[in-house]
Amino acid sequence: MTIDYSQFLSMSEEVSLLAVVLVLFIADLFACGKEERALACAGGDDTACGCPCGGHVRALLPVVLLLAQTIFILCNINTNAAAVSSAFGGMYESSGMMTALKATLNVGAIIVFLMSSKWLGAAENRIKQGEFYTVTLFTLLGMYFMISSGHFLMFFIGLELASIPMTALIAYDKKRTESAEAGAKFILLALFSAALLLYGISLLYGAAGTLYFSKMASMPVNLLSILGLVLFISGMGFKISLVPFHLWTADTYEGAPTPVTAFLSVISKGSAAFVLFTILAKVFGTGTGFFGLWSVGFFWIIVVSITVANLFAIRQKNLKRFMAFSAISQAGYLVLAVMGVTEQGMAALVFYLLVYLAANLGAFAVIHVVEQNSGKVGIDDYNGLYKTNPKLAFLMTLCLFSLAGIPPFAGFFSKFFVFMAAFNAGYYLLVFIALVNTVISLYYYLLIVKAMYIKENDSPIAAFTSDCGTRAALVLCTVGVILLGLVSAFYDGLSHLAGIAL
Amino acid sequence: MEYTLLILLLPFFSFLFLGICGKWLSHKTAGLVGTSVLGIVTILSYMTAYAYFTAPRGADGTFATLLPYNFEWLPMGNLHFDLGIMLDPISVMMLIVISTVSLMVHIYSFGYMHGERGFQRYYAFLSLFTMSMLGLVVATNIFQMYMFWELVGVSSYLLIGFYFTSPAAIAASKKAFIVTRFADMFFLIGILIYGYFVGTFNFVEAGADGQVVDTMGQICGFDADAAKFIPVALGLMFIGGAGKSAMFPLHIWLPDAMEGPTPVSALIHAATMVVAGVFLIARMMPLLQSFGTIGGHTVLGIVVWVGVFTAFYAAAVACAQSDIKRVLAFSTISQIAFMMVALGVCTELPTGHHHVGSLGYMASMFHLFTHAMFKALLFLGAGCIIHAVHSNEMSAMGGLRKYMPITHITFLIACLAIAGIPPFSGFFSKDEILTACFAYSPFVGWFMTAIAAMTAFYMFRLYYGIFWGTENEELHAHHTPHEAPLVMTLPLIFLAIVTCAAGFIPFGHFVSADGQAYDIHLDWGVAGTSIVIAVCSILLATFIYIRKRQPVADSMAEKFSGLHRWAYKRFYMDEVYQYVTHRIIFARISKPIAWFDRHIIDGFFDFLAWGANALGYNIRGLQSGAVQKYAFVFFLGILALTLLFLLA
User: Fold this and answer.
1) Is residue A405 part of a domain?
2) Is there a domain that residue A4 lies in?
3) What is the pLDDT of residues B550-571, one digit of tens each?
4) What are the residues facing B202 on neighbouring strands?
5) Among all residues of chain B, which has the CA nearest to that of A245?
6) Residue A406: which of B150, B165, B634 has the nearest Cβ?
7) How much is the average pLDDT of A444-463?
8) Which domain holds residue A83?
9) Which residue of B has its CA nearest to A423?
10) By CB count within 10 A, which of A299, B21, B187, B508 is most buried?
11) Among residues 440-459 of chain A, which lie with CB inside 8 Å of chain B?
12) Is residue A251 part of a domain?
């Protein structure tokens, strides 16, 4: 049997990302080869320690390459309805919507790289700076495969490729106990959920006799397939961190280095939510007997996720834990777009993700830069931030307003589209409950605003100047928070692509 | 009419400019920039109004609705959201109200906010607020209205919380924001339902040949089947309107919002934002008339009863307040309820007889106009007084007429206007409302007349408490009150002149229910009754409150027996009034209502917050940090889902 190698050409997105990873990997070998040299760099500047590439280049290279790759895939975006390309007998599929999502994830990764540049350039991390980039991009590659999979095994491989390197990232600060603990917790629970997911897939195989998405729609509804569906949903629930599969989230978010938390909260979650949408649409879609089942299931999962996360968020003292619960509740809104698996829902989901990416990464960039400069992450530590660092406090407020969904920030539009999609799909009660919860969420997001602007503090976080990378990240996020909603081209484009994809 | 776009853009740019560059500007420059931009906006608004109302009427005797701007902004399936400017009689009228009051507040704030920290920020927020409010009234569709509605909420949150170092101001701004957003949630659901069943958000649309198509009029022609859910949507929208316009029981934010700077109260809580709900109902009036029935009750009927109750309730509470701004706040609630009632009693709009079925529409808009002017005047006057005595409490005032002649006279004019004494503007508009109420039902008519009497009473209680009565010698000894600077008194004088003159505007020629010119004529039966009742109330208030009660003199009188009897009698007389008013009226009626307000209505909202907090605390144990437990919960989740799927 021979393989038609030209099929790899239709995987240009994955191949180009892999090329970026390899270039970075090799560049890292030459960048600062010897550990001793790196250690010598600890105190001095970049030119003195003799690295062929200076610190700035090492930080810039991944950003530039990833940006080039993003532009490359966006230029080749498939906007033609007829040509949903597939390769390897349907194992791999690609549509314009998937490309748009991949580009979105890339932008997220770029922002994370930007905000972490100073942190990675610090003495204790410089030696492993290269790993951070390659490992992050490997998880991204896994997500690419997951998104474009046309077969359950392909999907599972993508999922694992996305989650195992993630553990390395979470435990990146290995000398810090919390980071190591978070990594351990994550890998244990990830394995637990992956095992159950794989078991579910095997049950589905038993029921359908095939694992190609396109051929599984005729699967009979019986105990075997239902259990398979439940295990699949729980596995995805873990990735998206939906209640009751969410318990790892707070501990992991708190322990992981902040840029990793940011990556985890947006990019990892977003890709999983999209895959959940496509698989539910293709395999358990509206025409099958499963539709009614998972509709009821997700109804409760969404209600519980949003409500429980909101209740927990009110009580948090640590900002990263707070953001974890905020992320769980946001995940509930994200999955709201899945309900009914409509065209409008798909556009709303990707748009929600795009907006959430800008707002959440913006908030994390502020948390990260404050943590870097003062070592503080408690909500009480933020008391009086406005007096010492007014710009940061202001940007944080914009991001929180967007997360709470207050017009005219982008978050309002994304929530509105999601509600509209669910409403049109007939989930009136669910939309009502979600709306009530937006009022509660406004309360706790305002708690942070209150801390920054109003509360008195004898020893507020001292004024500092943030580094260029973080500034660039913050500018990108702020522009996103303001413009994504007001410029209608974004949503228009996505809804056009969604029309093709479904 | 292309320049109307500038009316929105100028304040927005002024907001951006002051917000971004304010730091580098001196207080004076920032204030001048904000004020002069607003001045231009006011001139443009007046030009628009002049051009609009002097244009010839159409064949059917109405002013044409204009659509100078409308562009499709966000398409969503077959629905689309537009942004644009729509000019019709009520939106043009609102342009004048908003720009005038806002300009006065801008000028006045020069003096009032003099030397405050964040002066530039204050002007930036004022510009933002004005822009949002203007955008709200010229909205071409319900969605644009909602967008600006929320923006109004955000900017008022920023303005109420302007003194962000004061915990009370912060609590108040948060309360205002959250209560109104709670109401807005229903508004949004209403919009969703409306869009879903009607298929468009637009009030009017640009037709193919440059004509303006009355979309709302077409919707009125819908058959019964498609129209089944429209009343529900309208009802939900009314809840949103009730939140912004502080109708019972969503009024609780307004009295607290008085913690903001006083000019802000004048702008937001008297003249503009709080009437947004009234404007919304007026805007949706054709639909409310065509299909306003939910289960046998008309939405307009609900509006009437909510309005009537709120008007009474707020007037009763206003009698028992000692903080002058709170008296004004409750009086605002009561007056807005008058406007709501007037809209609610419009039973037949398109063909109705002017003086019977559809008078309320014109009356409500007229009262909105006059009330905005005299209530802004009252608030600005209150600002001058607070500025002079550094307190909101009536006990710190008394006898101020000697020290502040301009404030005194203008305040008196406003009080006469709100009490409904001719020839001041409030008389004319209130008379129209009462006539409309009598046409609707005699009970509502008499009830509203009684509330009008209460209004006259509590306003003059306030007036005498501030300007007459006992002077607070102790306070005035080390700080003699003085008249406010010219920059603050000029707006007062201007608004006072408007208040004197506005009643003679032939308002019916500009705004009326069916758009045709209509001559206001007084129904002397109603007008005479209301004048008599108002005068009686004022006399009663005069009788009780004009005298000087001098506790120091009283105790002196006890020592000097010659004066003792006189002092005793005086004291006794006071006690009688005290007993009648305070023990019976206040203690038996007003106090329980105030208590009900503080404890039951407020308490309910507090309980919601407390409940969320407490529940959050109790389920914390789940999140223990032990991985085994997490895996166990995970497993339980799978089990629950499986059971759910098998049983579903």
Assistant:
1) yes
2) no
3) 343 334 444 555 433 433 333 3
4) B141
5) B634
6) B150
7) 82
8) 9-501
9) B192
10) B187
11) 440, 442-443, 446, 450, 453-454
12) yes
